[in-house]
Amino acid sequence: MDLIEVEDLTFQNTIKSMWSKKKITFDLGPVSFNFKAGETLAIVGNNGSGKSLLAKLLVGLETPKSGKIFMNGVELNKSNINVRCLDIRMIFQNTNESLNPGLTLGTILEEPLRLNTKLNAQERISLIEHTLRQVGLMTEHRFFYRHMLSDGQRQRIALARALILNPKVIVADEPFAALDPSVRSQAVNLLMKLQRDLGLGFIFISQNLGIVRHISDKVIIMKDGKVIESGKTDVIFNWPKDEYTKKLVDSHQALVNRQNN
Q: Domain range for residue 246?
């Protein structure tokens, strides 16, 4: 059985233009895909393609106009929204904005446990320390504040916050964009290890085709809210069908060749 199955998901957003009275409508979809536990689905596209909006629909931050989302065969809707909050967790792109500078990391990690579990104080501390070790940090980091961490450590805290409720799926929106190459490599390896150890499903949103090719099993290519092409990663990279996909792959390959020369 598929861990996640999405059927004909659509969304419509209408906003007023800053420079005129005209309304601008952005239509997303229809989007359909599926993947199993332990697999990674990458969503690729330029800025404004709708990939981050799709992520928000999956975690329940936005409500689709139409379509269905299933987890392990059960439809996710308003009646079981708590299930989605627990089972699908998100890592946001900008960790500085998502981590409260006035709270210790322990307090940040404890908040979802207070809201969603019946663990007592000592049990919460034990789980926080275990999760910190899972992401390669020290238990003492629970006493730290955001400003005391490097960019790579902040990303690990964001990952710890996503992991602490033992989800089935993690949606990662450009999680490595702000990291330098060496730290990025460590973060990618950590994600892949956690996926192997925990059997997680990953939805990975990125413009970095090198990482996408390295970690994903399936790829969705998006442009202007539409799915241009989708399929297994090897097929998309080796035999792209759509011209837009070909340009993305060719640009990536040209960059790789320059780096190797």
A: 4-96+166-260
Q: Is residue 231 part of a domain?
A: yes
Residue 150 counted as domain residue = no
Which token pair is 50?
């709708």
Q: Is the dihedral of CA 95, 153, 36, 244 positive or negative?
A: positive
Edge-to-edge order in the sheet of strand 4-16:
23-35, 4-16, 66-71, 74-75
Tell me the percentage of the chain whose pLDDT exceeds 90.
Answer: 69
In a domain, 60, yes or no: yes
Angle at 31 between CA 27 and CA 36, to 5 degrees: 150
Residue 105 · residue 161 · CB < 8 Å? no
Retrieve residue 246's tokens. Answer: 């070909």
Give 39's pLDDT tier (boundaries 50, 70, 90).
very high
Kindly state the average pLDDT of the residues 209-218: 94
Torsion sign across C-alpha atoms 235, 236, 237, 241: positive
CATH of the domain at 45: 3.40.50.300
Q: Are 203 and 43 in contact (CB under 8 A)?
A: yes
β-pairing verdict for 74-75 and 66-71: antiparallel
